[in-house]
Amino acid sequence: MTNTSRPKYCKEAPDWFDLGKYEAVRELDAKGWLYQLSSRLTLDVLWQPPPDDIADQLDDSEDNEWTQTAYEIRRGIKNEGVLKPPYNLADRIADPYDDFFGKASFGYSAVRSLTNSDVYNNLWHPHCRNEILKKINSLNNPTSFERSTQEWADQAFKGDHHSSTFVGIDLNVSDDQLVDDFKKWLGSARKRLAYPERKRNFTENVFLMWRRFKVLPYIDLQMWALKFGFKYSQDTLADFLFDPRDMIGKETVRKTTRKHANAFWKAYPALRAQVEGALTTQLT
Fold first, then answer.
1. Range with the poorest average pLDDT among 117-131, 160-174, 186-200, 211-225
2. Mean pLDDT for the stretch of residues 79-97
3. What pTM value is reported for the model?
4. Is the dihedral of CA 191, 192, 193, 199 positive or negative?
5. CA distances from 87 to 96, 110, 276 (A)
6. Sign of CA dihedral 176, 179, 181, 184
7. Residues 164 and 218 in one domain
């Protein structure tokens, strides 16, 4: 049952919390950060009641896969802070029968050819079917049908995945022209689909900011508070995360740590694509 009462502020850290456990963030590269993030995103989902279609497949014991996975991740965070992957990420992506990373199983690239399977799947996607049915139902008004159909025909094709879109390429054109035209199209596509622009990959400078401003322990503390129905003030978080001699107060936590933590929490799709793309290149 969801706790609807107003959360109370707590001034004590959980008994498992030890900032020293997070020293290992210094060793994390893009793959390591991806695993930390994906584990916590998974825990965030598993701490919610399972959807009905999944709940029907789980047994009634507290030792089912849903709760057991949440327990294992939670135990890892409590004991280690920085989690150690139980597998080699490159092996996961190299194995075509392993669907842990889905699209990466057969080699991932953010730019690829549109396949016959893409066309079929998108044609029969509910969104596309509904649009076609709307046009058929408009036949009783030919003028309206012609106008709305032309507007619909001129719209960019929407794939069955919210972050994917498709584009036509004229290979008769020079590479220079294609690159220029793609940059123009990319800006308009991001704006149309309301996807934020990210010009650069995640680099060591980004990881340095995540380390310096204690993003990982900040997220763990906030997840713990949310799960158990209380809150931490910015001053309390500053005391937990930073050495008092550093004179870092609540404004730094509020303006900087929280900003980087929010960016980290939303980084999964881009960070995953970066890691998978780099590993796929290494394996080919």
1. 117-131
2. 65
3. 0.70
4. negative
5. 16, 24, 15
6. negative
7. no
